[in-house]
Amino acid sequence: MLVPIYQIDAFASRRFSGNPAAVMLLERFADDATLQAIAAENNLAETAFLVPDGEDYHLRWFTPTVEVPLCGHATLASAAVVMERLAPHRRSVVFHSASGPLSVERRGTGYIMNFPTRVSRPVEPPPLLAEALGQDPVEVMADAFNYLALLETADQVRSLRPALAAVAALDRSGLIVTAPGDGGYDFTSRYFAPAKGIPEDPVTGGAHCALTPYWAQRLHKTTFRAFQASRRGGELVCRLVGDRVELEGSCVFYLEVTAAI
């Protein structure tokens, strides 16, 4: 079967920045093993699979090794496929996912995604965290998915070289590292998830579902300019709206081909 595949740089305003995602449009979902094999073949942080449902779409996300319950950058890329290739007249779309319905609105040259928050709570640092970071964090938080470690400065976040084996051994699937921002940004972050087959994710929507309410409490505001300081780098506008988070960013198409599956 031949299906279209798009590779898109998400949370980016130019190619070769932000976070690349593959988006594949299917008539129906293949079995899980096939979807996982396709994602491993694509070898990107995420592959998104779209299946039409009336005006809406069902959406699933796979890393090269596992299916995940939420992925921001591949949702952003999926919205760009729908509203720039499949139906250029559209200004919004709803994706039905493991995290519930996710709405995305086209706004100017970018998109605004509406996601559930991930509220983290203070915890004692797990034994491997200091080893993973090579330093003691100022504060440690956790939700059901990730640890969140606060460092003092954005420079510390940028220069961090974590011990990925120790990160992978934590009892959460990922590690968010953050600090107050510089250069006009409210906060800076990086995200590591070797247990999910992603040593470092370039720009992570799901992490910002936790970072936005966290920094809202610390900075007493609800709108932020955020920068994820991976090698590729990426910037987002984040807004806390009740128990939801709005994440705003742009996409750039890199590759449009047909795949045989």
Q: Which structural category fits the helices and strands?
A: alpha+beta
Give the full name of the CATH homologous superfamily of the largest domain. Answer: Diaminopimelate Epimerase, Chain A, domain 1
Strand content: 35-45%
- Number of separate helices: 6
Q: Which value, in Å, is the CA radius of gyration?
A: 18 Å
- What's the CATH topology name of the largest domain? Diaminopimelate Epimerase, Chain A, domain 1
What is the total number of structural domains? 2
Biggest beta sheet summary:
18 strands, mixed
Q: Which CATH class of the largest domain is shown?
A: Alpha Beta
Helix content: 10-25%
Task: Report the count of strand segments.
Answer: 18
Low-confidence stretches: none
Mean pLDDT: 97
What is the name of the CATH architecture of the largest domain? Roll
Q: What is this structure's SSE topology?
A:
Blueprint: E1 2-10, E2 19-25, H1 32-42, E3 46-53, E4 56-62, E5 67-68, H2 72-86, E6 92-97, E7 100-107, E8 110-116, E9 121-122, H3 129-133, E10 139-142, E11 146-150, H4 154-159, H5 164-168, E12 174-180, E13 187-193, E14 198-201, H6 205-219, E15 223-228, E16 234-241, E17 244-249, E18 251-260
Parallel strand pairs: 2-3, 4-6, 11-12, 13-15
Antiparallel strand pairs: 1-2, 1-18, 3-4, 4-5, 6-7, 7-8, 8-17, 9-10, 10-11, 12-13, 13-14, 15-16, 16-17
